[in-house]
Amino acid sequence: MSPPLLAAEGLTRRFVLQRSALGRPTAIVKAVDGVSFTLRAGETLALVGESGSGKSTVGRLVLRLIEPTAGRIVFAGRDLSRLRAAELRAFRRNAQLVFQDPYASLNPRMTVGDILAEPIALHAMVPPARRRERVAELLDMVGLDPRFAGRYPHEFSGGQRQRIAIARALAVEPKLVVCDEPVSSLDVSIRSQVLNLLQDLRARLGLAYLFISHDLAVVKHLADRVAVMNFGRIVETADADALFAAPRHPYTRALLSAIPVPQPRARRDRMILAGDMPSALEPPAGCHFHPRCPFAVERCRIERPALVDDGAGHAAACHRWTELPAVGAVAEAGRASPALDRLIAAFAQADVRPGAGADTVATERIAGAPVLR
Amino acid sequence: MSAAPLLDIRDLRVVFRGDNGGFTHAVDTVDLTVAHGTTLGLVGESGCGKSVTSLAIMGLLPRATTEISGQVRFAGIDLLALPDRALRDLRGDRLAMVFQEPMTSLNPSYTIGEQIIEAVVRHRGVSRREARGHAIDMLRRVKIPAAERRIDDYPHRLSGGMRQRAMIAIALSCDPELLIADEPTTALDVTIQAQILDLLRELKASTLSAIVLITHDLGVVAEICEEVAVMYAGEIVERAPIAGIFARPGHPYTVGLIGSIPRLDRRTDRLASVPGRVPNMTGLPRGCRFAPRCPFAGDMCVSAPPPLVKIGEGHWTRCVRAPIEELVS
Fold first, then answer.
1. Is residue A187 included in any domain, yes or no?
2. Hey, which residues 154-173 in chain A have their CB within 8 Å of chain B?
3. A337: DSSP letter
4. pLDDT value at position A77?
5. Cβ contact (<8 Å) for B256 and A337?
6. Which domain holds residue A270?
7. Number of domains in chain A
8. Are A351 and B275 inside 8 Å of each other by CB?
9. How far apart are CA B236 and CA B32, in angstroms?
10. Is A364 near chain B, with CB under 8 Å?
């Protein structure tokens, strides 16, 4: 097998929240606590967890936007902390980020063309004379009309802005894109457009995604591998299919069973967690999940479970998972409705495909339909 | 169960007057009924008018810039014709609301307890001492642990899920008959969302008469609603019992919404998506408002606004091409 594109080894990051008068830290949060994973070229790894689980911090560490307290990140065989300035620049070109909020991540005073041209110029991706052409290509690639290059971000809807943010990330032809909740702020129908786009671009450009999300349904749709995080630690990691078919860690099971399924009376083994998430300032001893875990025993309160791989790439950090009853946390397909499937297929065909040319974008014009009531 | 519905909305229209003399038809000819004992899901994407509908019911829209017409009958009382004072007596008493963002809808400078006591004293005329006892009971009912201590906490001391419970406790403190919950779980993590949905389900079984749940999430609807109304561009485009809408959706927009959701129980290579976006409410198409985005749209769709047609028991759709499943068979 080829060496991984990205490897995180024992990644740890502490944040000091409060210091005493003498500058000694008095409140420390371990946002990321010994996280290790690998990501191959063209692969999608999803980091999943609730708010405060440390998944976004991992994304930032991986891009070296913040420095780890301990552990290291290896990108294409090189330790990130030892890169010289020029090498770091090359790394920045190869690893890009798409943020959650497309309203905050685009400069409101720059036109879309300038937003896309800036990284192209910075990394000298194409000769200056070809920049405009490249901007047009990028817009077309994400399913936007190249004529929009002269417009400002506020003239676009949330979904379109997220397309612009994706185009900006792709402008420098990266190998890795960290997507931090890229569809969480979008409406359902727009969300599926952006998910389809991410999928198409991955297939076309051979991108690797580190996909950070709290939404397991979205993750199942997109990810090859999944790592579930709780309190800064990975508690379970596996191939997506294996994880969804037979989740091992009670936290993964709870997350899965908590997702509302768009099907009335879906049969499933519900597992509703009691209580709130404990404070990150004082994480519980032993397994961080034990206060909310219905299966916790004395050992879980004392001893931190190690993340043990079963040899087939499925690892869980739980003392008891082998004793737990097997679950089908996911609802059964139930009565399939062939008519509904056919109706949905009609929509899938009407989908805007990237690179299909400007005509498909006509339906997504800024102005409302021209006819007045 | 009485024959007359608890909430009966007829031909509700809400028009906002803009600064530049423009009009926005946020809600248009909405008819809705909510019977005793039901949970109605009001579904749609941002800007479709679902929150405005709920604010109109509650009488919470700014009078100066809003024109509301039609009829909103709650337990036989016409809410739109009610004087302010009488409406204030109803609101928080027989009619209550929970908002999406508990941090901005709770008053940060009063304790949770004070905010419940305020409502109880205002509507029940009991002493503060009695009201405090009642407030603790309420917090227990929404399963806030150590309620007798939590009652004196300020909102910022509570987590998101706890705040939403506190909001629900305030809303339920006077035993309302109708609860309108506007995206009550959208800001919460999934595990906490599951707890809150469970709580709503339980409360409806015990104390509440009916719930109107406003959400963009069809999954949430499938979990706790008996009936659904789908809104698009200010109109109700489909109305159905819960089983009907998922087995046999009658409106193409509903199909698009259902198809947009990634499924946990099967592998789909490609999600369906509704092309385009919600129309600008100041310049709506003359015919069907969804026609520009609809894969089934034909000439008859753009000429005149479609009426609601019945396609099953309690199942209505605003689509001239209904039943749409025949279009793909």
1. no
2. 157, 159
3. -
4. 92
5. no
6. 249-323
7. 1
8. yes
9. 9
10. yes
